[in-house]
């Protein structure tokens, strides 16, 4: 649209539809308020460094868990089960670590909807376990299961704290998705430790007490992401309004 057409269109508008002029003094206050919190920031390190950092958290924690808790679960698995279970965990861990690092940077492009990847990861692991293991009777389902769940959550909590320390400078525009992804990464640590150390191959036990650790840590991550959004935005908005008014 050229300038003449624009002028004619504006002239055809009702008088009350034209934009109001903003006083210069108010514009000055708005500009000052918007720049009040602007501070220089240190650029993020190279993305591959964060990905290496995720691996350096996962591998040592899982190794330490195997040393502390034993390898009875590893011994109980067949060669095919070991290959499928731990290859799946490795692939999921790699995908989630790459995805969490990309979430640190606003306006990153994704090959699938960001919220879909955490759900797809949890569903894929559930499907793999359902194909590998069978339901078996278990008299001590709750007592032994609670011990497994507590153990998995303990290692997941340690991993979660380390991941938060690594990714704390995130500027993600999707904090809930970021929380869910980091929660899943942490939960994978606990799940891997239990698969190595727990010899119980009952499908119900694995799903209810090993795999469910992923859901718990993911939900905790979502809650923390939502809380950070709520707690982090309100004071700045209030102060901005006070400066403008």
**Shape type:** elongated
**Mean pLDDT, rounded to whole units?**
80
Order of helical and strand elements: HHHHHHHHH
User: What oligomeric state do these chains adopt?
Assistant: single chain
How much of the sequence lies in strands comes to under 5%
Category by helix and strand content? mainly alpha
Helix content: over 70%
Report how far the terminal alpha carbons are from each other.
Answer: 37 Å
Question: Nearest-angstrom radius of gyration?
Answer: 25 Å
- What is the tally of beta strands? 0
Sheet with most strands = none
Question: Count of helical segments?
Answer: 9
Q: Can you tell me the residue ranges where pLDDT is under 50 for at least 5 consecutive residues?
A: 233-241
Which tags fit this structure?
245 residues; mainly alpha; 9 helices
Describe the structure.
With 245 residues, the protein is mainly α. The chain has 9 helices and no strands. Helix 5 (79-103) packs antiparallel against helix 6 and helix 7 (141-166) packs parallel to helix 9. It is elongated and about 80 Å long. It starts with a helix and ends with a helix. Mean pLDDT is 80; it is low at 233-241.
